[in-house]
Amino acid sequence: MIKPYRTSRPVGLLQVLAVILPVIGSCTPVLGRACRDRLLQLPKTNAASLAIEDPGGNAMRAFYQSLMRTEAGERPGVTRIIHYGDSHVAADLLTGELRRRFHSGFGDAGPGFIGGGSRPWQRSWARGVASTASNGWEPLGIRTSPEAERRFGLAGLSVETHRSDEWIRVEAACRHFELYLLSQPGGGAVEILLDGQLYRRRVSLAAEHAAAAYIEVTAPDDGSHAVEIRTVSTGAVRVLGLVVERGGAGVVYDALGINGARATRLLAWDREVLIENLRHRSPNLIIVAYGSNESGDDDLDLEDYLRTFSAALSRLRAAVPQASLLVVSPPDRAIRVNGKWQTIGRMPGLVAVQRKAALSSGAAFWDFFSTMGASGSIEQWASRPQPLAQPDHVHLTREGYKLAAEMLYGELIRGYLWELARWEDGI
Q1: Exposure letters 161-187 (e unless 16+ CB within 10 A, then b)
Q2: Mean pLDDT over residues 17-32, rounded?
Q3: Cα–Cα distance, 128 to 228 (Å, whole number)
């Protein structure tokens, strides 16, 4: 029997603001020595509640050491973060603020991985990427109904066409682009244009067996550039996504969220293509943030959820064992009972399962549910004069997601600075 996990004293909103945010606010955009000293001297009261749980001290080390190399300007000096999740991630409000803070503190290495959707890269404008496409592309992976083979790639979303003269065009102030594609039986052919000029002529995507394929495009300078992929024959052309990077040191933050997604979705995607894409992307940190949708499932079996959630983490671990893995619990969620908002009864148990799976698999864990105040907190956030949660008591407002990003970023930076101090002391 899995018992609900509860911190000895849930950390409320005012406590978090009082302890973390004044220091973090004074530390951006550059992490100077004075800032580091202040963070390292923060009181350790309620550390078990506030801090990212990493009992062995190893789960986050690879990520922190990558940040050290990035901050030191070592080549290639890029730290890559992949953030998987549901609508909290898909909105790119939480992740957008985290991206902005990492870019301010450690350098902007580019917009990162842009995935497909109902229209290719429809939210990419928020990252400084403009995209247009012809109308002949079919979205894959959005619906939860089973497709034939589920080779959707890194983001679990892709677009495909079987027609000639279909195109996707992406423009950004970056010099490095990389297309993630699928070679397969009956595959078509594409050509690649850079700034309107032919860059690669007729690349065939036909293959005996389906597998991930990649096409790199490097511009001659750091200005604004446009890359276009155009089909030049009939046959299947599937685009799994596009990487957009600047080519210099800094952080790249890939937000890979899908509305309505559950953690089991990671297990539904084709294993080989997902693993190959993950290894090719080579992230330093993978954040896994699901649970809001599962908490609303009346038939949720926590023992079964423990097995499936652990299996999802194991798949990510097997793909990139060198990467740090961090599980972030969902925020509080409430439903209306007898005219009053009450936290869904399954939420504490679900958070307990995620924590157990994370720590058992060698991942770190951040309990967002308890950090925001645990049961009843979503109603408090929604009832503030400037609401931090939406009326649906599931999602946060823009200000709420900004606050959540400040909380998580503060804990990540605290962990980074403690690891930096250990390294400087030769521990």
Answers
A1: bbeeebbbbbbbebbbbbbbbbbbeeb
A2: 46
A3: 17
Helix (H) or strand (E) holding 140: strand 138-140
For the record, the structure tokens of 63 come out as 């990520």
Render pLDDT for 289-332 as a digit per residue (tens, 0 to 9).
999 999 999 999 999 999 999 999 999 999 999 999 999 999 99
pLDDT(395) > 80: yes
The answer to whether the CB of 414 falls within 8 A of the CB of 50 is no
Overall pTM > 0.85: yes
pLDDT tens profile 186-212: 999 999 999 999 999 999 999 999 999
Q: Which of 70-79, 333-342, 363-372 has the lowest mean pLDDT?
A: 70-79
Domain that holds residue 293: 1-109+248-427
Q: Has residue 122 got a pLDDT over 80?
A: no
Q: Could you tell me the two tokens for 136?
A: 């002949």
Contacts of 194 (CB under 8 A, 6+ apart): 217, 219, 225, 226, 227, 228
* Number of domains comprising the chain: 2
Q: How does DSSP classify residue 27?
A: T
- Token pair, residue 148, equals 């034939």
Tell me: pLDDT of 14 over 80: no
The Cα 403–Cα 206 span in angstroms is 48
Say how far residue 171 (Cα) sits from the centre of its chain. Answer: 22
Mean pLDDT of 26-53: 50
Answer yes or no: do 391 and 256 share one domain: yes
Please confirm whether the linkage preceding 29 is cis (ω < 30° from 0): yes
**For position 142, which CATH number holds?**
2.60.120.260
Give the SS3 label for residue 311.
helix
Long-range contacts of residues 162-166, Cβ cutoff 8 Å, at least 24 apart: 162/188, 162/234, 162/235, 162/236, 162/237, 163/136, 163/231, 163/234, 164/188, 164/231, 164/232, 164/233, 164/234, 165/134, 165/230, 165/231, 165/232, 166/133, 166/134, 166/136, 166/137, 166/230, 166/231, 166/237
End of a domain among 247, 280, 301?
247
Percent of the chain residues past pLDDT 70, beyond the cut = 83
Q: Are residues 189 and 269 in the same domain?
A: no
Integer angstrom CA distances of residue 32 from 24, 105, 248: 12, 10, 21
